[in-house]
Amino acid sequence: MTDEELMQMAMEARESAHAPYSSFKVGAALETLEGEIFRAANVENASYGLSCCAERNAMFAAVSAGKRGFRRMAVVSSDSGISLRPCGACLQVLWEFAPDMDLLLQGPGGRIERRKVRDLLPEGFTFDYAGENTT
Predict the structure, then answer these.
(1) Residue 61 domain-assigned?
(2) Which three-class secondary structure state does DSSP give residue 34?
(3) Tens digit of each residue's pLDDT (9 = 90 or more) over 16-35
(4) What are the residues whose beta carbons fall under 8 Å from the beta carbon of 18, sequence distance 6 or more?
(5) 8-state DSSP, 65
(6) How far from the centroid of its chain's Cα atoms is residue 125's Cα?
(7) How many domains are there within the chain?
(8) Residue 123 placed within a domain
(9) Per-residue pLDDT tens over the stretch 39-74
(10) DSSP string covering 75-125, please?
C-alpha cells in the first residue's frame, strides 16, 4: 500500500468525525505490521476533556483487537492549510506502542510530511519515570 492510499483511508475515516464544537475533523489510518488497517476519527464532547482524537481512537481499536506491532499511521484534518501534528496525549500513546513508527501527516496543500513518533516526542513517559519496573 502506498503512502497516498493510506492517506486516502485517513480522509475517508475523517468523514465519520463528530466535531460539532470545533468543526476540526480529523481522520487516522493505522497500519499494523501484518498490513491490517484500523481507521478512526475524532469524537468531541461538550466537556472538551472527554473528547478523543482520531490517532488514539485508531490505536485503541487496534490494541483492543490484539494488535501490538505497527508500521505507520496517516493523519489528516479538515484544514489543508496547516502542518498537522498529533497532540501531546496522542504522541504519548503512540510512543508507548510504537516510538519508531512513521507518521504520515497532512501538510499544506495536501503535501505528505513523514515523521517518526520519537522525533515529535523524543522522551516519552515510561514506568522508569514513575519509579516502576515493568519486568
Answers:
(1) yes
(2) coil
(3) 999 999 999 999 999 999 99
(4) 41, 42, 43, 44
(5) T
(6) 17
(7) 1
(8) yes
(9) 999 999 999 999 999 999 999 999 999 999 999 999
(10) EEES-TTS-----HHHHHHHHHH-TT-EEEEE-GGG-EEEEEHHHHSTT--
Instruction: Give the CATH number of the domain where residue 71 resides.
Output: 3.40.140.10
The tally of CA atoms less than 13 A away on the side-chain side of residue 126 is 13
In terms of residue numbers, what domain contains 57? 3-130
Rounded to two decimals, what is the model's pTM?
Answer: 0.92
C-alpha cell at 38: 484500523
Torsion of CA 99, 11, 52, 82, to 10 degrees: 80
In a domain, 135, yes or no: no
Helices 54-64 & 88-97 angle (0-180, nearest 10): 30
Query: Which residues participate in catalysis according to the annotation?
Result: 55
Nearest to 94 by CA among 80, 81, 75: 75
Beta-carbon contacts of 130 under 8 Å, excluding residues fewer than 6 positions away, are none
Q: What is the pLDDT of residue 67?
A: 98
What amino acid is encoded at 95 in this protein? W
